[in-house]
Design brief:
about 300 residues; alpha/beta; two-stranded antiparallel ribbon; eight-stranded mixed β-sheet; Rossmann fold; hydrolase; single chain
Length: about 300
């Protein structure tokens, strides 16, 4: 017979091995239409839980619904997060914005406004479902998806239990100027409907963007959006982020506009929470997100 110490060690090992060893979840590819174009997503619902709380996941610029994948986190930030959260009893919907991943449309037609429209439609989609509890609906946004999440939080007519932002875009013109340089931003603002091929500094990979995208960087102001949301907010940032910086100063500035319960979570990591190097901070981030979402989902019951 095992001693009590050995039993405790065994239980501790099960927890550290991950919640996914305890529960399974059903994955479903779903689609809904926005302006006649399909938005594709993955809905992940825990087995054996009736109408669980649900988290909408909004990816970053040039990403897809699984979010930043690497050798250290092969399933991507959102793919991994959805699996772990499902094991804790939280359903999730991660979508490809139009122009990205498997969704319809062209990337060159994407704007911050079009992504906000997609995300608001995703909230409507979840509210219409009967297998998740839309009264306990939360949102997480990564990078540009974080800026989109602030707009959804400020504009949706549906109740949100909580909002979580992972290294969100806070000052979008500054962030994209740091990525592309001032001359590219100036050219982009004047390109009209003619796609401009642009490459990030230090990269040879190009994407095509129209002036609508560059203009939308200036017309979407996350601080103004989050001021309209009074619910719980978790803001997670890397203090070594070279895209959204300086941190935590930028995050503290955003929080000055939020009038509600909030938590600032910081780690000395980069924009991807060091996903390219290791998984430990990513796992801490997912755990903190799960704790926050569940705390306010339970309070909403």
């Amino acid at each position: 017979m095992r001693s009590m110490t050995n039993i405790l060690l065994l239980l501790t090992g099960l927890v550290s091995a991950g919640w996914a060893t305890i529960s399974d979840a059903a994955q479903e590819t779903v689609t809904f239409s926005v302006d006649g174009q399909n938005v594709v997503g993955t809905l992940e619902v825990p087995d054996n839980i009736k109408r669980p709380p649900v988290l909408l996941m909004l990816h970053g610029y040039t990403g897809n619904r699984n979010e930043w994948a690497s050798p250290a986190v092969k399933e991507g930030l959102f793919g991994r997060g959805a699996r772990v959260l499902a094991a804790r009893g939280v359903a999730s919907l991660r979508i490809d914005f139009r122009g990205s991943g498997e969704s319809g449309g062209k990337f060159e037609d994407m704007t911050v406004d079009s992504e906000i429209k997609d995300a608001l439609a995703a909230v409507d989609f979840l509210v219409a479902r009967h297998d998740v509890d839309s009264r306990r609906l939360s949102i997480v946004g990564m990078s540009l998806g974080g800026a989109v999440a602030t707009a959804v939080a400020g504009r949706t007519t549906h109740h949100l239990s909580s909002v979580v932002l992972w290294n969100p875009g806070i000052n979008l013109p500054a962030a994209f100027t740091s990525l592309y340089g001032e001359e590219v931003i100036k050219a982009g603002l004047n390109t009209g409907d003619h796609p401009l091929e642009v490459a990030m500094k230090g990269s040879s990979k190009t994407v095509a963007l129209k002036s609508g995208f560059f203009k939308s960087l200036y017309t979407t102001v996350p601080a103004a959006e989050i001021e309209k949301y009074r619910g719980p907010l978790l803001l997670a940032v890397g203090t070594s982020d070279s895209i959204v910086f300086p941190q935590p100063t930028s995050a503290q500035g955003l929080l000055q506009y939020h009038h509600g319960p909030n938590v600032l979570w910081t780690r000395p990591v980069d924009h991807g929470f060091d996903v390219e190097q290791r998984a430990d901070t990513v796992d801490q981030l997912i755990e903190a997100t799960g704790d926050f979402v569940l705390k306010y989902a339970h309070q909403g019951n």
